Amino acid sequence: MPARRARFLPLALLILGLPVLAxxxxxxxxxxxxxxxxxxxxxxxxxxxTGFEVSDYLDPAGxxxxxxxxxxxxxxxxxxxxxxxxxxxxxxxxxxFSRIEAVRLRSDDGTRAVTEQRTAVRVLGLAFVSNLVxxxxxxxxxxxxxxxxxxxxxxxxxxMASTGGWELTELSDGEGAATFAEFWFDxxxxxxxxxxxxxxxxxxxxxxxxxxxxxSQAIGRS
Length: 222
Known about the structure:
Blueprint: H1 11-26, E1 48-58, E2 64-76, H2 80-88, H3 93-96, E3 100-108, E4 112-123, E5 126-142, E6 145-155, E7 159-172, E8 177-189, H4 196-219
Antiparallel strand pairs: 1-2, 2-8, 3-4, 4-5, 5-6, 6-7, 7-8
C-alpha cells in the first residue's frame, strides 16, 4: 500500500510547513494540564466537540484546497498507559477506527513510528480515499500527561497536510483510574467533487465524534 509522493509540493517543503499547521491547531486546543477530576465527571461515554471548522485554503501556488480542523474530548475509564497502548498499536488501527482501511508499519522505536495509512470516507454515495505516510510521536510531558501526535510526511496527492494528535491526562474520579482524552486535527485536502466542502461541514463534526467514540469503545470501559 505505498503512497505516491505528492506532485504539488516538494517533500522537503511539505515537511517544513507541518510545524506551522500543528502550532496553529494547538494554539486553540484545551491544555490537558488544566483538566481536573471534576472536569471529567460528565465526559464518560460522551464526545464533546469543542471546535470544528471547514474553510477554503489557497497554497502558495494559488491552488485551492479545503481545510478542516477541530477538537473533541472525552473521558475513558482506563489508565493513561492503556490508552497510549491502544493508540500506538498501529497494525490494529483498522479494527479500532472505521475510517482506516489499512496500515503498514515502516518503523517504530517506541516514541517515533512511520506508518503508511489508507483512509476512506464514504458518504452519500461519494468516496474520498487517501494514501498517506505519517510520522507518529509519543511525548510524555510528565508522569500524568502525554501526547500521541501524527504529522503527514508524504501523500498520494489527496492531502496537502494532515496533523493532529491526542492530548492525554491521567486522573481519577473516585471510581478508579481515568484518562481525559482530547483529539485534535488540522487537515488540508484536495477538492475532488462538487459540494465537497458543504458535505464536510454537514457530516464532519459527527465524524470527529465517531473517531473519539471508537477509541473509547475499543478500550471498552468508558
